[in-house]
Amino acid sequence: MASQKNKTSPERERRCNGWTNDETWVVAIWIRNHVGSRSYWREQATRQFREASNSESVRNGLWSSARAARFQLASQLKEEIQSAVPMAPASVYLDLLRMSLDSVNWHEIADNLLYELDR
Fold this sequence. Notes:
Elements: H1 22-33, H2 35-51, H3 56-59, H4 65-83, H5 92-102, H6 106-117
Helix pairs in contact: 1-2, 2-4, 2-6, 4-6
């Protein structure tokens, strides 16, 4: 029995409803289902897509416009959502919230938002 491989090893990427993990799925669902968030992040995706060609990395030929838009939108998502965490006294709940947000695949959410611009 000890020689059997664990099918749920940490090395394998866990999937949740087509997303990398539960944390990514929950953030993506809230963005998609909350009218204000959906509208705001769609606008931000559009802005990042338009401005990507002005990126220094694109001008220097290091990245494509699509890659620059993805990177910038993912960074913006992470920064804005993590900065909204309440400044509460230290607690196990606050630590768990921060750990969960650290597990979010921000690039995957950015990809999804940028993909939806084509629809």
